[in-house]
Amino acid sequence: MEAFSITPLLQIGFYLTAIVYAIFSAILFYHWQNYSMSNAVTLQTYIAFAVFSLPLLAIMAAIAFL
Amino acid sequence: MLYDKIELEPDENVLRTVRKHWFVITVELISIVMMGLLPVIGCIVLLNLPFNLDIANLFADNMAVIMFMLCTWLLLSVMAATVSWTHYYLDLWVITDRRIIVIEQISFFNRKVSNFRLERMQDIKVSITGIIPTLLNFGTIRAQTASAAESNFTSPALPDPRELQSLIQTAMDARMASLGDAPILVD
What we know:
Largest interface: A-B, 28 and 26 residues
Distance between the termini of chain B: 31 Å
Number of strands of chain A: 0
CATH architecture of chain B: Roll
Number of helices of chain B: 6
Oligomer: heterodimer
Radius of gyration of chain A: 16 Å
Distance between the termini of chain A: 25 Å
Strand content of chain B: 25-35%
Number of strands of chain B: 7
Helix content of chain B: 40-55%
CATH superfamily of chain B: Pleckstrin-homology domain (PH domain)/Phosphotyrosine-binding domain (PTB)
Helix content of chain A: over 70%
Largest sheet of chain B: 4 strands, antiparallel
Largest sheet of chain A: none
Structural class of chain B: alpha+beta
Order of helices and strands of chain A: HH
Strand content of chain A: under 5%
Order of helices and strands of chain B: HEHHHEEEEHEEH
Protein backbone atom coordinates (compact mmCIF):
# COMPACT_ATOMS: atom_id res chain seq x y z
CA MET A 1 0.00 0.00 0.00
CA GLU A 2 1.31 3.40 -1.01
CA ALA A 3 2.11 5.83 1.82
CA PHE A 4 -0.30 8.77 2.07
CA SER A 5 1.44 12.13 1.62
CA ILE A 6 0.18 15.06 3.65
CA THR A 7 2.18 17.65 1.68
CA PRO A 8 -0.50 18.44 -0.98
CA LEU A 9 -3.07 18.99 1.76
CA LEU A 10 -0.72 21.36 3.59
CA GLN A 11 -0.10 23.25 0.36
CA ILE A 12 -3.81 23.62 -0.34
CA GLY A 13 -4.28 24.71 3.28
CA PHE A 14 -1.57 27.30 2.85
CA TYR A 15 -3.10 28.67 -0.36
CA LEU A 16 -6.52 28.95 1.29
CA THR A 17 -5.04 30.66 4.34
CA ALA A 18 -3.08 33.05 2.14
CA ILE A 19 -6.25 33.99 0.20
CA VAL A 20 -8.20 34.61 3.42
CA TYR A 21 -5.26 36.61 4.80
CA ALA A 22 -5.03 38.75 1.66
CA ILE A 23 -8.76 39.53 1.68
CA PHE A 24 -8.69 40.31 5.40
CA SER A 25 -5.65 42.59 4.95
CA ALA A 26 -7.37 44.49 2.14
CA ILE A 27 -10.51 45.04 4.26
CA LEU A 28 -8.40 46.09 7.22
CA PHE A 29 -6.37 48.49 5.08
CA TYR A 30 -9.53 50.04 3.63
CA HIS A 31 -11.08 50.63 7.06
CA TRP A 32 -8.01 52.17 8.63
CA GLN A 33 -7.28 54.27 5.58
CA ASN A 34 -10.81 55.68 5.51
CA TYR A 35 -11.97 55.85 9.09
CA SER A 36 -8.92 56.36 11.29
CA MET A 37 -8.31 59.72 12.91
CA SER A 38 -4.58 59.35 13.38
CA ASN A 39 -1.90 58.47 10.84
CA ALA A 40 0.44 57.35 13.63
CA VAL A 41 -2.05 54.85 15.09
CA THR A 42 -2.87 53.59 11.59
CA LEU A 43 0.80 52.97 10.87
CA GLN A 44 1.35 51.28 14.25
CA THR A 45 -1.63 49.00 13.57
CA TYR A 46 -0.29 48.01 10.15
CA ILE A 47 3.17 47.33 11.61
CA ALA A 48 1.82 45.30 14.56
CA PHE A 49 -0.42 43.25 12.28
CA ALA A 50 2.45 42.53 9.88
CA VAL A 51 4.94 41.73 12.65
CA PHE A 52 2.61 39.21 14.28
CA SER A 53 1.11 37.64 11.16
CA LEU A 54 3.81 37.50 8.46
CA PRO A 55 6.22 35.25 10.44
CA LEU A 56 3.36 32.79 10.97
CA LEU A 57 2.59 32.79 7.26
CA ALA A 58 6.28 32.31 6.51
CA ILE A 59 6.46 29.30 8.85
CA MET A 60 3.34 27.83 7.24
CA ALA A 61 4.87 28.31 3.78
CA ALA A 62 8.11 26.69 4.91
CA ILE A 63 6.23 23.69 6.34
CA ALA A 64 4.08 23.30 3.23
CA PHE A 65 6.75 23.73 0.56
CA LEU A 66 10.14 22.80 1.99
CA MET B 1 -8.95 60.62 7.48
CA LEU B 2 -12.22 60.71 9.36
CA TYR B 3 -12.60 64.45 9.95
CA ASP B 4 -12.58 65.01 6.18
CA LYS B 5 -15.63 62.77 5.89
CA ILE B 6 -17.57 64.11 8.88
CA GLU B 7 -17.63 67.58 7.28
CA LEU B 8 -17.74 69.88 10.25
CA GLU B 9 -19.81 73.00 9.78
CA PRO B 10 -18.06 76.38 9.46
CA ASP B 11 -16.83 77.52 12.91
CA GLU B 12 -17.74 74.17 14.46
CA ASN B 13 -15.16 73.09 17.01
CA VAL B 14 -14.44 69.61 18.25
CA LEU B 15 -14.56 69.63 22.05
CA ARG B 16 -13.67 66.01 22.70
CA THR B 17 -13.34 62.63 21.02
CA VAL B 18 -14.17 59.69 23.23
CA ARG B 19 -13.63 55.96 22.85
CA LYS B 20 -14.75 53.13 25.06
CA HIS B 21 -12.79 52.61 28.27
CA TRP B 22 -9.42 50.88 27.96
CA PHE B 23 -10.70 48.07 30.19
CA VAL B 24 -13.00 46.89 27.37
CA ILE B 25 -10.23 46.39 24.83
CA THR B 26 -7.84 44.99 27.45
CA VAL B 27 -10.29 42.25 28.45
CA GLU B 28 -10.99 41.42 24.80
CA LEU B 29 -7.31 41.24 23.87
CA ILE B 30 -6.37 39.17 26.92
CA SER B 31 -9.17 36.71 26.10
CA ILE B 32 -7.97 36.40 22.51
CA VAL B 33 -4.34 35.93 23.56
CA MET B 34 -5.37 33.22 26.03
CA MET B 35 -7.45 31.46 23.38
CA GLY B 36 -4.57 31.76 20.92
CA LEU B 37 -2.02 30.30 23.29
CA LEU B 38 -4.26 27.53 24.62
CA PRO B 39 -3.31 24.86 22.01
CA VAL B 40 0.36 25.84 22.21
CA ILE B 41 0.34 25.41 25.98
CA GLY B 42 -1.68 22.19 25.56
CA CYS B 43 0.98 20.75 23.22
CA ILE B 44 3.79 21.75 25.59
CA VAL B 45 1.98 20.15 28.54
CA LEU B 46 1.28 16.95 26.57
CA LEU B 47 4.89 16.71 25.43
CA ASN B 48 6.16 17.09 28.95
CA LEU B 49 4.00 14.39 30.51
CA PRO B 50 6.57 11.99 31.97
CA PHE B 51 4.58 8.79 31.65
CA ASN B 52 3.15 8.85 28.14
CA LEU B 53 5.74 8.16 25.44
CA ASP B 54 3.12 7.50 22.75
CA ILE B 55 2.16 11.16 22.63
CA ALA B 56 5.78 12.19 22.10
CA ASN B 57 6.05 9.71 19.23
CA LEU B 58 2.76 10.92 17.77
CA PHE B 59 4.02 14.50 17.87
CA ALA B 60 7.33 13.51 16.31
CA ASP B 61 5.61 11.65 13.45
CA ASN B 62 3.17 14.48 12.70
CA MET B 63 5.26 17.49 13.62
CA ALA B 64 4.65 19.27 10.29
CA VAL B 65 0.87 18.98 10.50
CA ILE B 66 0.76 20.00 14.16
CA MET B 67 3.01 23.01 13.56
CA PHE B 68 0.95 24.01 10.53
CA MET B 69 -2.30 23.83 12.50
CA LEU B 70 -0.82 25.74 15.42
CA CYS B 71 0.35 28.49 13.05
CA THR B 72 -3.10 28.65 11.45
CA TRP B 73 -4.73 28.94 14.86
CA LEU B 74 -2.29 31.66 15.93
CA LEU B 75 -2.84 33.53 12.68
CA LEU B 76 -6.61 33.43 13.24
CA SER B 77 -6.02 34.75 16.77
CA VAL B 78 -3.91 37.63 15.41
CA MET B 79 -6.69 38.45 12.96
CA ALA B 80 -9.30 38.30 15.74
CA ALA B 81 -7.21 40.63 17.91
CA THR B 82 -6.84 43.03 14.97
CA VAL B 83 -10.61 43.03 14.40
CA SER B 84 -11.15 43.71 18.09
CA TRP B 85 -8.67 46.59 18.11
CA THR B 86 -10.13 48.02 14.88
CA HIS B 87 -13.64 48.03 16.28
CA TYR B 88 -12.42 49.60 19.50
CA TYR B 89 -10.45 52.35 17.79
CA LEU B 90 -12.92 53.19 15.03
CA ASP B 91 -15.88 53.24 17.41
CA LEU B 92 -16.04 56.75 18.83
CA TRP B 93 -17.92 59.81 19.92
CA VAL B 94 -17.03 63.21 18.55
CA ILE B 95 -18.45 65.96 20.74
CA THR B 96 -18.47 69.35 19.08
CA ASP B 97 -19.94 72.64 20.21
CA ARG B 98 -22.99 71.98 17.99
CA ARG B 99 -23.64 68.25 17.98
CA ILE B 100 -22.59 64.81 19.08
CA ILE B 101 -21.47 62.47 16.35
CA VAL B 102 -21.74 58.83 17.39
CA ILE B 103 -19.80 56.43 15.18
CA GLU B 104 -20.45 52.77 15.81
CA GLN B 105 -18.19 50.26 14.11
CA ILE B 106 -20.37 47.24 14.77
CA SER B 107 -18.48 44.99 12.37
CA PHE B 108 -16.33 45.47 9.27
CA PHE B 109 -19.39 45.80 7.08
CA ASN B 110 -21.71 47.41 9.58
CA ARG B 111 -20.89 51.01 10.40
CA LYS B 112 -23.39 53.48 11.79
CA VAL B 113 -22.82 57.23 12.01
CA SER B 114 -25.43 59.31 13.86
CA ASN B 115 -25.63 63.04 14.50
CA PHE B 116 -27.42 64.52 17.49
CA ARG B 117 -27.73 68.28 17.59
CA LEU B 118 -27.17 69.77 21.01
CA GLU B 119 -30.17 72.11 20.80
CA ARG B 120 -32.44 69.09 20.41
CA MET B 121 -31.07 67.14 23.34
CA GLN B 122 -33.47 66.86 26.23
CA ASP B 123 -31.99 64.58 28.81
CA ILE B 124 -28.69 62.84 29.46
CA LYS B 125 -28.51 59.95 31.90
CA VAL B 126 -25.43 58.26 33.23
CA SER B 127 -25.35 54.83 34.79
CA ILE B 128 -22.36 53.12 36.35
CA THR B 129 -23.25 49.58 37.25
CA GLY B 130 -20.97 46.98 38.83
CA ILE B 131 -17.78 46.85 40.84
CA ILE B 132 -15.25 47.20 38.02
CA PRO B 133 -17.05 50.09 36.27
CA THR B 134 -17.32 51.86 39.63
CA LEU B 135 -13.65 51.34 40.46
CA LEU B 136 -12.40 52.24 36.98
CA ASN B 137 -14.99 54.96 36.44
CA PHE B 138 -16.71 53.97 33.24
CA GLY B 139 -20.37 53.59 32.42
CA THR B 140 -23.27 54.03 30.07
CA ILE B 141 -24.59 57.31 28.75
CA ARG B 142 -28.16 57.53 27.52
CA ALA B 143 -29.34 60.64 25.75
CA GLN B 144 -32.84 61.56 24.80
CA THR B 145 -33.54 63.95 21.96
CA ALA B 146 -36.61 65.90 20.93
CA SER B 147 -36.88 63.78 17.79
CA ALA B 148 -38.41 60.35 17.37
CA ALA B 149 -37.68 57.71 19.98
CA GLU B 150 -35.34 55.80 17.68
CA SER B 151 -33.02 58.80 17.58
CA ASN B 152 -32.25 58.41 21.27
CA PHE B 153 -28.88 56.86 21.82
CA THR B 154 -27.07 54.71 24.33
CA SER B 155 -23.34 54.15 24.53
CA PRO B 156 -21.88 51.69 27.02
CA ALA B 157 -18.44 51.64 28.66
CA LEU B 158 -17.55 55.29 28.15
CA PRO B 159 -14.77 56.57 30.40
CA ASP B 160 -15.56 59.17 33.06
CA PRO B 161 -19.26 59.42 32.12
CA ARG B 162 -20.12 62.08 34.71
CA GLU B 163 -17.49 64.40 33.32
CA LEU B 164 -18.79 63.71 29.81
CA GLN B 165 -22.33 64.44 30.95
CA SER B 166 -21.15 67.72 32.40
CA LEU B 167 -19.26 68.60 29.21
CA ILE B 168 -22.32 67.89 27.05
CA GLN B 169 -24.58 69.82 29.41
CA THR B 170 -22.24 72.82 29.29
CA ALA B 171 -22.04 72.61 25.50
CA MET B 172 -25.85 72.37 25.31
CA ASP B 173 -26.27 75.46 27.49
CA ALA B 174 -23.74 77.38 25.42
CA ARG B 175 -25.45 76.31 22.22
CA MET B 176 -28.87 77.35 23.47
CA ALA B 177 -27.46 80.69 24.59
CA SER B 178 -25.79 81.24 21.22
CA LEU B 179 -29.03 80.47 19.40
CA GLY B 180 -30.84 82.96 21.61
CA ASP B 181 -34.41 83.44 20.57
CA ALA B 182 -33.89 81.97 17.12
CA PRO B 183 -36.56 79.34 16.38
CA ILE B 184 -35.39 75.74 16.38
CA LEU B 185 -36.48 73.81 13.35
CA VAL B 186 -38.04 70.48 14.14
CA ASP B 187 -38.48 67.78 11.49
